[in-house]
Amino acid sequence: MATSSFAQDITKQLKGKSYDEAVTTLNAALSGLSAEQKAKGYGMLTELAYKDASVAFDTYQINAASGKKDPVNFKSVLNVINDACQTDIYDNQPNDKGKVAPKFHKKNVDRLQNLRVLLIVAGQECQEKEDNAGALKYYESYVNSAFSSLFSEVAGKKDQNAGNVSRVVAFLYAQKEDYATAQKFAEIAMADTASAADAEGIYVAILEKQCKTHDDTLNYINKLKEINAQKYFPQMASLYDRIGEKEMAKKLLDDEIAANPQNKMAWAIKGENAMNARDWESAIASFKKAIEIDAQWTTVWFNLGVCASSKGFDLNEKYSVNGRIKTEDAEKVKAALVEAKEYFEKVKELDPDRKVIPNWPYQLRMIYNAIGETQKAEEITKMLGE
What we know:
This protein is mainly α. Helices cover 74% and strands 0% of the residues. The N and C termini lie far apart (85 Å).
């Protein structure tokens, strides 16, 4: 491969320069360099960074042993790890004679593998200062280096930290709404048994954030099936219903209930789907099944109240003609509202401090007023301090 005179002279061009000057010079020349010359260029950057990085490592060890808090030049560690990894990429490519003859690999592995832990320390310090951008640089370098050609043999297969650091990187990228990058690191974390459980939650949240279309949501549901269909069936059923795939939602729930009739969540989701469709009777029937299994489920009692009261108000609208309603129809309306009262009173019993359902008093007061129990409605008003 032919190279320019500048490319052939890269080591001379970098000699005597500071690290920052050398970076600028190498970047300017990079496009015209052969793989061998790039390896030499990054090798020189590695040497320059290593001088400060080795001091940083010694300072960190002294601080840890003595309790001192002398400043540690973490940036030099970041530079030396990144530059060494780049060196290794080009060092393992055919040289100017067409042969693969690595010159830097063993030396860099031996002297740098113990420095990598400082990338985690640096990332943690950045997070303590709420510098998430800085934390990402250090954490991402740690993970990438663990699976690089330079460190994979000594770190990637045995690294006890790579999974958990990947999980943190995924979380931080998700905060930036860079979901594609976040997903990549979450998948790395999920492959590590030490971080898989926590990473799964982040991974699922990342996938959900990327649901913009009907097809996106179907793909998301399929991913949930792959991860753990049993665990995520409630979300899957709700999502099918939300995007209009009513029959798929119904089949999923019916199949689960047939296999496990004591699955309270299946009954609750079935009730919610019916409630969203304003099918009050079906919703009430499903929610009742749920509380037969768990009589302390406050949220479901509240949903029962919402469904029964909505049923009553819908009946009132249906039967009213010019503001008047027949006696027998009025009784149907009142029966639904009295039923709602009983459900909301159960919520009051289970959640007197309003920690689960903060707005139940307003619903209950509305029902009291609707059925003429105004004294009880006033008691609610006093309780609210209005």
